[in-house]
């Protein structure tokens, strides 16, 4: 079977108290699978694409919890099972201002940090329409830095469109460390997704969204650059033209995973033949819906996304 989209990266188990409870007081924790690349695979899969998430997991009950969850949510799964290494987790304590949301990672020694190209389904990458990973993956270990580079190059060699989200995490590496590694990967990236703040702080492109997109496209020969801007929406630049998309109004129940929902929605529409403008709109609508849903994943349907678009006066033919 050939897939529309293959993704590669770590999926952790997310443990969080209900509501805005403090971790130190919590008597119970919600137990969910969560990871940028698997989030995108699930999100795009629920919106019509044939998707496959690939990674390396410990051969344990916790590893199987991850794969069982992702399959049940709509993504294909292909993992290398490891007798060594552990299942990464993170603890999430949600709160509004002024306390703010806090994330505590517990992922050192995770099995995924030893993943090499030999652990991954490279034939599926070669046959896919698109391959997606993010800047989280090469930040996790020197081995994953090399593996990310090798798989991106493999996808390029087989004319698979490569999509890369900078997705900077300050708890994993510094701005300077990230920039050096990411820029080494950029020659094998076709579509770059970057948050406006990451372009400023990590990539050193201190311009407005349109300037960021054009500068990066010109410097690295990206086919498409998508700049996400939080409450300001998003902008995409391709073939010399820029397209903007406003964010949709939404009640926020759980903001974690909003960016992955945007990317999943964007790719679902774009890989289905949609225009750049339609893909941005689809991504923005998916992201708005995600903020109403607990957990990291946008458990939505195409009809729900299209309803958001219709209410705003937009229309997409799928």
UniProtKB/TrEMBL annotation:
Every Carbohydrate kinase PfkB domain range? 4-296
Q: InterPro entries given for it?
A: Carb_kinase_PfkB-like (IPR052700), KDG_KDGal_kin_Halo (IPR054871), PfkB_dom (IPR011611), Ribokinase-like (IPR029056)
Any one GO MF term held by the record is: kinase activity
Keywords per UniProt: Kinase, Transferase
Provide the E.C. number(s) assigned to this enzyme: 2.7.1.178
Give the enzyme's main class according to its UniProt record, as a single word.
Answer: transferase
PANTHER family referenced in this protein's UniProt entry, alphabetically: 2-DEHYDRO-3-DEOXYGLUCONOKINASE_2-DEHYDRO-3-DEOXYGALACTONOKINASE, SUGAR KINASE
What family is reported?
A: Belongs to the carbohydrate kinase PfkB family.
Name the record gives this protein = Bifunctional 2-dehydro-3-deoxygluconokinase/2-dehydro-3-deoxygalactonokinase
**What organism does this protein naturally occur in?**
Halospeciosus flavus
